[in-house]
Amino acid sequence: MSRQHHRPGPHELGQNDLVDRRTITAVVALARECGGPYVEWAAGRGALTRPLARIGAPLHVVELDPRRVAALERAALGPHVCIGAGDILRHAPPAGTRTLVANLPFHVTTPALRHLLRETHWQHALLITQWEVARKRAGVGGATQLTAQWWPWVDTGLVQRIPATAFRPVPSVDAGLLHLRRRPEPLLPASEQRDYHEFVRRVFGGRGRHLAQILTGAGVSREAANRLAAQRRPGALPRDLDAATWVAAYRSRRT
Question: Which SUPFAM superfamilies does its entry note (predicted)?
Fold first, then answer.
């Protein structure tokens, strides 16, 4: 008896295909401005792939569903387009990549972001995520620990809100377009990433009745902690710090 192999459907792959022309045009225009070569993660049916290919720069496309990979290959998008089946959580953008574009499956947004931030071969990343995730990663209304840990090397910005009706199937929440930019001049050297990441983790997990007390508990000198806290609004918490303040706090640790 032959065994039928189950092929995951769009819902199982977490795919919500982008169908709104204005949104597609806006994403591709920003990608063109950032420049190629390009990598596209989670290409789906190719709503972004086709206009990205028309820019003419090298484009490396990664899609998990082999049926969609085959459909994109049949589209014959040009010799400058490389299409492959793969898991974005394991894919490493090739050296020379300038801009990565992704309509991220909502259920893998955070692990995909963590994976992307650990990769070094990209300068810009244009990511479609859930709206609340996009706001948090851009530091709107307060930064997350993940954002703060990478701020010295990667700046984040919220480009626009994308209504749920821009996708098929229609998700239960709106999405947002997030722009990550690798800083041409990092605020800290790469050799200090491990120590800085641990410092941010300690601050976010620290206890205290106010910001200065939390910073002091994480190793910041009392004088520096009081000075930095005085620059923020009363009642401020670690999530309210900006990139420059995080770096200043890290550099003010007691030795």
Answer: S-adenosyl-L-methionine-dependent methyltransferases
